[in-house]
Amino acid sequence: MSVGERIKTRRKALKMTVDELALKLGRNRATVYRYESEEIENLSITVIPPLASALQTTPAYLMGWEDPVIAAIPVREHKTISRYLKMADKSKIDDIVDLVFEKEFGDTETDGLPPAVINLFPQKKKPN
Predict the structure, then answer these.
(1) Alpha helices in the chain (DSSP H)
(2) Region 95-111: what's the mean pLDDT?
(3) Coil, strand, or helix at residue 47?
């Protein structure tokens, strides 16, 4: 998937219009269309971080350097997950995972979630 395709895919996943993204970036809609169509091939280093922020993802994902499974986790949760991974006492993992699932998906069950998301939380897999 190209950079332009990732931009468009993230924007649509967020149900964001081109005009809304353009407003967040302080650009016009034609510029956003040019990013998505790759008419502007080499995005400036000053454009990528604000674009990633507006699309609630990482610059690494937009550039194709990060696994899309990781990109499926909202950026605001990256810090929480990072803190958890640094914790010495992981005995509360099930509570933390349930909290994240409930917050993000409205339930603690995995029914209907993509396998890539379920694979991030092996303890949520149902026994065969």
Answers:
(1) 3-13, 18-25, 29-37, 48-54, 59-63, 68-71, 75-86, 93-105, 115-119
(2) 64
(3) coil
Report residue 63: phi and psi, to 5°: -80, -10
The confidence score (pLDDT) of residue 110 equals 57
- Burial (CB count <10 Å: 0-12, 13-18, 19+), residue 105: middle
Closest CA to 10 of 79, 60, 45: 60
**Which two structure tokens, joined as six digits, stand for 116?**
């890539």
User: In this structure, what is the dihedral angle of CA atoms 89, 124, 102, 77, given to the nearest 10 degrees?
Assistant: 60
Most confident of 2-6, 18-22, 42-46: 18-22
Tokens of 123: 């303890």
